[in-house]
């Protein structure tokens, strides 16, 4: 396989320019403050990219997601529980009732079905819950 030469003289300034346009530096996540800022960036990208794998930012979103996943695997204990149980836990922590999630999940009937385990959380709902609870959307998927 013939590997093309790497033009490091061009990569450095391009990388610096990218880093300067983002709200958080893209590096391995080292602390909770950086984690929260990267989660915010990831959720903003999810709002734009959604599940469109052909979107021009889809690969960037995937890389950001892997940074988050790496940090969570090392630093955050996420219970190995069904999404509806995790949602119950987060609601209890914040003193929320089912009616508080109607907007994010699509109505009271949907909230009840999700919390009882009769209905799964979809990607849009996971993003909305991630933003509300300030966690990664992967907690709900």
Question: Quick gist of this model?
Answer:
With 141 residues, the chain is an all-alpha fold. It has helices spanning 8-21, 32-49, 58-75, 83-94, 102-105, 108-115, 123-133.
What does this structure look like?
This protein is an all-alpha fold and 141 residues long. It has two domains: 25-75; 83-140, Orthogonal Bundle (434 Repressor (Amino-terminal Domain)), CATH 1.10.260.40. Helices cover 60% and strands 0% of the residues. It contains seven helices and no strands. Helix 2 (32-49) packs antiparallel against helix 3 (58-75). The protein is elongated. It starts with 7 loop residues before the first helix and ends in an 8-residue tail after the last helix. The model has no long low-confidence stretch (mean pLDDT 89).
How are the secondary structure elements laid out?
Layout (H helix, E strand, L loop, with lengths): L7 H14 L10 H18 L8 H18 L7 H12 L7 H4 L2 H8 L7 H11 L8
Helix pairs in contact: 2-3
CATH class assignment of the largest domain: Mainly Alpha
Q: Give helix % range.
A: 55-70%
Please tell me what the overall shape is: elongated
Round the mean pLDDT to the nearest integer and report it. 89
CATH homologous superfamily of the largest domain, by name?
lambda repressor-like DNA-binding domains
Q: Got a strand count?
A: 0
Return the domain count.
Answer: 2
For the biggest sheet, the summary is:
none
Order of helices and strands: HHHHHHH
Radius of gyration: 18 Å
CATH fold label of the largest domain: 434 Repressor (Amino-terminal Domain)
Q: Low-confidence parts, pLDDT < 50 over ≥5 residues?
A: none
Number of helices: 7
């Amino acid at each position: 396989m013939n590997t093309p030469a790497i033009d490091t003289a061009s990569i450095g300034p391009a990388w610096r320019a990218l880093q300067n346009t983002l709200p958080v530096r893209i590096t391995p996540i080292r602390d909770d403050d950086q984690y929260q800022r990267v989660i915010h960036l990831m959720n903003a990208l999810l709002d734009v990219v959604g599940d469109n794998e052909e979107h021009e930012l889809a690969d960037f979103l995937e890389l950001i997601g892997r940074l988050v996943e790496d940090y969570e695997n090392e630093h955050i204990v996420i219970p190995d529980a069904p999404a509806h149980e995790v949602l119950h836990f987060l609601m209890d922590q914040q003193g929320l009732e089912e009616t508080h999630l109607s907007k994010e999940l699509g109505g009271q009937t949907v909230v009840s079905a999700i919390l009882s385990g009769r209905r799964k959380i979809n990607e849009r709902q996971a993003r909305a819950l991630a933003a509300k609870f300030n966690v990664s959307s992967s907690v709900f998927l």
